[in-house]
Design brief:
The protein is an alpha/beta fold. The protein contains 7 helices and 5 strands; from the N terminus they run E-H-E-H-H-E-H-H-E-H-E-H.
Length: 176
């Protein structure tokens, strides 16, 4: 059995990592971590424009590694996606060159859970830019996700947010 890839995507501080862990526990899946977060933690800085395309490769490698561990699982939950790198590259560097590749790669996901920026913004070391940047990135992501299917918006606090995501994944499972 090949696990289905479920993408969790959203601007900073939307709860992607937390929800990915909860969903993996709920469904018995595996989480592919976010390459951007790992990069920032490892290098103690954010990536430059020249490093953006290597982040796409790093995200793909993390997903491939998770798939190896998930052979007996139904789902692999991807904490972010190459499309998020393209959006950040657009936002921070006005570089739209990564969208074509990222949108092509996004077709691999069986479902995209688009986390809404309705959680309180929380500082995370030096890696987050604030509520205004979060909204700007959310707007760019909304535009990019207009070319992706299926996408389910996930909103709400606590249990309501989890229930929204679980319902979307359960609907996907019933469609098989």
């Amino acid at each position: 059995m090949n696990p289905l890839l479920i993408c969790l995507i959203g601007a900073e501080c939307c709860g992607k990592s937390t929800l990915a862990q909860v969903l993996a526990q709920h469904f018995g899946g595996v989480v592919a971590p976010e390459a951007l977060r790992l990069f920032c933690d490892r290098h103690d800085r954010t990536p430059t424009q020249a490093e953006q395309s290597s982040l796409i490769d790093a995200q793909l490698a993390l997903e491939a590694q998770a798939l190896v561990f998930a052979k007996q699982q139904r789902f692999t939950f991807c904490d972010s996606a190459p499309l998020m790198t393209a959006v950040y590259s657009d936002h921070y560097f006005a570089d739209t060159s990564l969208y074509v590749q990222a949108l092509r790669l996004h077709q691999r996901y069986a479902l995209t859970l688009w986390l809404q920026p309705d959680l309180p913004w929380v500082a995370d070391g030096n890696w987050r830019d604030g509520p205004a940047a979060r909204i700007q990135v959310h707007t760019l992501l909304a535009r990019a996700l207009g070319q992706v299917h299926p996408v389910v918006a996930v909103a709400g606090q606590g249990v309501a947010r989890v229930q929204c995501a679980v319902a979307a994944i359960s609907s996907l499972s019933r469609a098989d």
